[in-house]
What we know:
alpha+beta
Amino acid sequence: MENIQENNKAIVRKFNKEFVEEKNISVFEEIVSPDFYNHDVPDPSMAAAFFFFTKIFHGAFPDAKVIVHDQFADGDTVITRKSYKGTHKGDFLGIPGSNKAVTIPVIEIIKLRDGKYVEHWANADIFGLLQQIKAD
């Protein structure tokens, strides 16, 4: 079981490094199951998650880096406490790019099956992000 847990943690780190940071679309397709379900948004589909990252997040924070602070695995579930750090360069939730450096703390729970993301829950400090990018 420990081997599966370590493998699942490595998959989550790979997703954050190669898809979120490096924008490698093939990694999303490799890691996210067609049956993916995101519990945090109105449209829980894989397509909606892909759209959010490729059209909204990457456009708003093109230099985003992911810093993993803690990561735990239990069975097929990986819990990660991380931060996104980047520069607000493009529109995000109707707020035009401000060129401000931002940090977005996130706690994320990923359930994997056969090495693929099948479920997702996250708590991101969006209110704190909005405070960072709002006009002075």
